[in-house]
From TrEMBL, chains A, B, C:
GO terms for molecular function: ammonium channel activity. Residues 20-431 form the Ammonium transporter AmtB-like domain. It is a multi-pass membrane protein. The gene is RHp2. Belongs to the ammonium transporter (TC 2.A.49) family. Rh subfamily. It comes from Triakis scyllium (Banded houndshark). The lineage of its organism: Eukaryota, Metazoa, Chordata, Craniata, Vertebrata. One of its GO terms (biological process) is ammonium homeostasis. This is Rhesus glycoprotein p2.
Amino acid sequence: MSAIRCRLPFLVIFLEGILLVLIALFVTYDEHSDAAAQSNETDHKHNQLYAIFPVFQDVQVMIFVGFGLLMGFLKKYGYGGIAFNFLIAVFSVQWALLVQGWFYHFHHGHIHIGVYNLLTAETACATVMISFGAVLGKTSPVQILILSLLEVPIFTATEWIIMELLKIKDVGGSITIHLFACYFGLSVTTVLYRPGLKGGHKDEGADYNSDKLAMLGTLLLWVFWPSFNSVFASSGHGQHRAVLHTYIGLSSCTLTTFAISSLLDKRGKINIAHIQNAALAGGVAVGSAADMMVTPAGAFTLGCIASVLCTVGFKYLTPFLAKRLKIQDVCGINNLHGIPGFVGAIAGIVTILLAADESYGHGLYDTFPERVPKEGDRKLAELVRLLPQLKPGGGRSAWDQAQYQAAAIGVCLGIAVLGGTVTGFILKLPFLAQPKDEYCFNDDPYFEVPEVEEKEEFEFTNKSNANNNQRLKLPV
Amino acid sequence: MSAIRCRLPFLVIFLEGILLVLIALFVTYDEHSDAAAQSNETDHKHNQLYAIFPVFQDVQVMIFVGFGLLMGFLKKYGYGGIAFNFLIAVFSVQWALLVQGWFYHFHHGHIHIGVYNLLTAETACATVMISFGAVLGKTSPVQILILSLLEVPIFTATEWIIMELLKIKDVGGSITIHLFACYFGLSVTTVLYRPGLKGGHKDEGADYNSDKLAMLGTLLLWVFWPSFNSVFASSGHGQHRAVLHTYIGLSSCTLTTFAISSLLDKRGKINIAHIQNAALAGGVAVGSAADMMVTPAGAFTLGCIASVLCTVGFKYLTPFLAKRLKIQDVCGINNLHGIPGFVGAIAGIVTILLAADESYGHGLYDTFPERVPKEGDRKLAELVRLLPQLKPGGGRSAWDQAQYQAAAIGVCLGIAVLGGTVTGFILKLPFLAQPKDEYCFNDDPYFEVPEVEEKEEFEFTNKSNANNNQRLKLPV
Amino acid sequence: MSAIRCRLPFLVIFLEGILLVLIALFVTYDEHSDAAAQSNETDHKHNQLYAIFPVFQDVQVMIFVGFGLLMGFLKKYGYGGIAFNFLIAVFSVQWALLVQGWFYHFHHGHIHIGVYNLLTAETACATVMISFGAVLGKTSPVQILILSLLEVPIFTATEWIIMELLKIKDVGGSITIHLFACYFGLSVTTVLYRPGLKGGHKDEGADYNSDKLAMLGTLLLWVFWPSFNSVFASSGHGQHRAVLHTYIGLSSCTLTTFAISSLLDKRGKINIAHIQNAALAGGVAVGSAADMMVTPAGAFTLGCIASVLCTVGFKYLTPFLAKRLKIQDVCGINNLHGIPGFVGAIAGIVTILLAADESYGHGLYDTFPERVPKEGDRKLAELVRLLPQLKPGGGRSAWDQAQYQAAAIGVCLGIAVLGGTVTGFILKLPFLAQPKDEYCFNDDPYFEVPEVEEKEEFEFTNKSNANNNQRLKLPV
């Protein structure tokens, strides 16, 4: 594996050099973090930090701990799952700070950053991690760093088109994050198809302890998902509904998963991997409609639908895709992010069309800024008398908004598949140290794994000692 | 186990159908989550969400992660402990949203909900989980779902009587949550007595890794317990004291536990199970008095008392109850919730009687709303001049309040034992798939457990491979 | 080990007795937690609790969960690492409440406490835990309790001198916490040198599962480190920058660690222990300058430098110190806290000297209160016209401030080495039950370890059963 030795360090050092130069050239403080931006009127209690920091920390736990443990479910790839998730997360956040900065926060030649930028950078980061799930254990750290390097700007551009041009509603990212990340990742893994793994791989599975740790990851993601779905909703009732709907969706989804997983097994046994994944599908499915008046029953229903499709997907669709369509989806991201992403995207459109404007009252324009009449429209003048702080919008009807949402799905899928395919071919470049089939799903090529030391130790210790060791170690 | 197959899924689907119908019929948004309830004067920064969300998330971590890992301490029932805790948590929260809604938030035929309702629902949820601890590993998922279905309304009714009629002080739930849940659970397990487990069971124990994960659960519960004890205290100094007292009580309790656990062992060895449980007893013991002027030294003392009783309980009382009284208490909830619950309940009464009104100053009426003079009382008029925002109360003396607290303990125990006994007999109904003794404390009947796959794999791989496998897996 | 039996419980009970007496004699509520301190004007929403509680909880997770899991990395000392960390944490917090109270919050014969005191107590607690890392597994619980008993007051006195007399800037504690704790701990372990461990110890290592749990500890510390570095910065832009710089420093540090760790291994394999530790070095290195205008690129650079030095330190310096200088540093605190502490201390000085006053604008005096002109100085009068709320300071120049920072490093190291050495000799006292070499890094002397029960069980179960047991347990 000297391949790794020469490649990973130099790629990382190279990437860091670039990051440092770009940060030094472009990045400066925003008005909330810049000491010089404070006037003698500034009330420090109202610094933006305090409005977003607690939720930011929740999302941090999801990205670094929740995703990390969930990625560490493989019995012999636990270090890789947890540590490489960590690796691409820190790289993606820094890279996204720059790329998103150029798109959204570039003024007079500088990117102005504060904690809000770290928060948005984590959406890019989450996108990379979801895609990573498709190729977990089949790719070298060099490959996944390149994956991050390419996916972050493609994601940011796509999000910019969808949010700035099409101006759609997607607070939970069902479309911009989950659909994009899933089909980008599936395209990558399709290009990286390994015939040698067609019959499965002896290490492609969990053991009792890795499964419990992965379950812990799921629980952390589950608990903090309402923070993730609400953080980008409009403050007040918008965020309140986003939390409520996400929680209800996740609950009904989790409950359903136990039923379906047991129902799909001939002995009625629950597959813990279904719980680990499908219990989260509800969070994806309520993403787009999270802050709309989807009603509690609506959120409940979305959770149930997402769970059924996700669990059935794990049982039948993933093996089918692997065998027939040569799509080897290690973590089953199509089931957790793809299908529920579609459910969420469609739910958003349906909610826009079915929820009467009356049900929103004055809150309509907080929730749908594009529904506000255009500059100069007579209706705007009337509204402003009622809601003085109202800003002119796009004068869209519900039907207009629904069409833009639909268009966004198409744009998102198109770019994801195209971008993922190109990325996949780049990852095949020989010097990226793609591991041989027999080395897949194993930490050994990348990490010093304790067992090895054990073995050496055995040679030096006398047998009784070894036995003693062994007996004591058995249940460890 | 085809019993499971036909029963669990259909029960879950049936329960979900009912939940969906009831939610669709009854549940709507409250003024904080309803877009239509917003006026042009609404300041979104003051939405109730922001006042409770961070603490709500802390409680979420306790319920789903802390309890889950602690329930997963059995060496072969890790999936069951963690996943079934998850199962009953999501069901109980949704069911409690409805039941508590009918009791507390029912207006014009609708239950109005926001994040506050999710928070109160979690108290019902915690109650179910505590009771679950008594029958952990001895009951099928079907049984524990029925347990939740029955305990949530019985708990809610009891709490309503105690809080709305007797109007007692119990911010940390020493009485309403811990005493109730404990004696409800012990009554259930007494009815479900298994003579076959009299001599113990080979799987009723932890291994090195399950103990470390359970310890992690304890640490999370420990860290967030101050949030749990303070969230229902009056805002300001009341919540501040609740945090302080809970923290001090937990600290002294933890320290004491190390001493007592070592002292009780002939070789002076510490029992990690004592640390996992008794370290939390202090949080239960300061529950009722958490926001009163119990003094830091008082909180410290409560922690010490709770720890001693809890640890001694694990060492001597639990085996005694199992042998003599046929009460098989798997997690020892009587030691962690029952006895410390009594300590907390009595501490509340003692504090009410001993803490002079002067020590509360103006804060007296924030802490004891029932101490405010009755409507029309001359004293009220005088007080209102000082504290304009004061509302009429029950005109209770400290002695009156103490008597109501004592009455609440009786009511709580009576309903808990009666309700638990009835529930126990219902759980014995043959079609609830109660596992045979030999299947207790084992995931195998309910989950696909990796080991099984391992075995199959061995058959297909050549011996050298298997050995290789084995050697590599040893310390895993 | 009856030594433990008689010593640990009695020491703990003795310490608790003293704590209780002192708390009863001295500790009372502060104005935020005292009911009697509330006037009818008090706005409960502005109780100090709400400003610090969320960040306090983040720090709680670091201290109890993050540190605990990281200390549990040894394969046979998992209970000890996690539980003894818990033991000294609860003792140190209570002891620090008193000691810091006497130094900082002592009025009219009473120590006035609120949640803020718990927060500051945790800095003392963190200091003890860092030092504990140097002697992990080589000391009895009796010894580490004595260590805590001695280190807390020495730390508090040192911090008082540095903060109250020298008035330096060190929001993240690079000097007061990390440098002090490291050299105190190294001095202790030097005095406790064990020739018998010169050749290493068969149990001084991790296994696959303990490493994954330690990695989880690292991730939690990583995620919440920005809270730790920002909580003592001035509110508003100061805390905002502290979060931003810490996050950037941690990210660049983590990325670098993957490169260096791989580069230092002949096969290019990553050492997971490097990731567990060096990924955090950036948090230490930005500590002193965290709230200064160090610039994002500056924070990025500090992270890289800290990572390189820390990783190289683990690879070459730690073995060297153990062999040549008889400094056996079990957790390598010199690499994670010592060297990065120096980087942070120097970075603070450099930033003070290089960052122009203009770059701070009006924020200069929030960040450097000592830079405000002295009482009576004409400049002060002018400034007060601009910034009415400004309080007189020390009239220091940047150069003055830099010199005070340098002096603080010296003071800190001097007291740490002296105090640590004395503490070390006290810990050598025979009745403190220091474990024999062969018992090091093993839970067996202190805890009932499941394996033992297993063994007994084997005797009672028939062979087939035992095998069956064994086969099922293998991958556990």
